[in-house]
Amino acid sequence: MTKSKSRSDLLHSTVDMLILRCLSHGPMHGWAIAKRIDQLSGKVLPVGQGSLYPALYRLEYRGWIEGRWGTSESGREAKLYRLTRVGVKRLPEEDREWRTFSAAVDRILGIA
Fold this sequence. Notes:
The protein has helices at residues 3-23, 30-40, 49-62, 85-109, and strands at 28-29, 65-71, 77-83. It is an alpha+beta fold. The chain has a three-stranded antiparallel sheet with strand order 1-3-2. α1 crosses α2, α1 (3-23) crosses α3 (49-62) and α1 packs across α4 (85-109). The longest helix has 25 residues, at 85-109.
């Protein structure tokens, strides 16, 4: 696996996990997901459209989320995403994988 492929996989899995975690609190449209990640991260992890929408499509393809057209909280028509049953079951595994990865990085950096 090449360095760029590894970096790409890491970025994908990170964005995927953040999206799944946001959707675990209820359905949201894409812009709201990006805004929520930005807010919760203290504006450290902005997720642009170029990362967000491919991740949403990837998660939808895997069957972890489902998108349906509806009305957003602002009254506009938007595609609202929600976790599927498969996604709900997958979230704890994704969380464990992320925590394992994060702990390994912490050990390497001398944090843990």
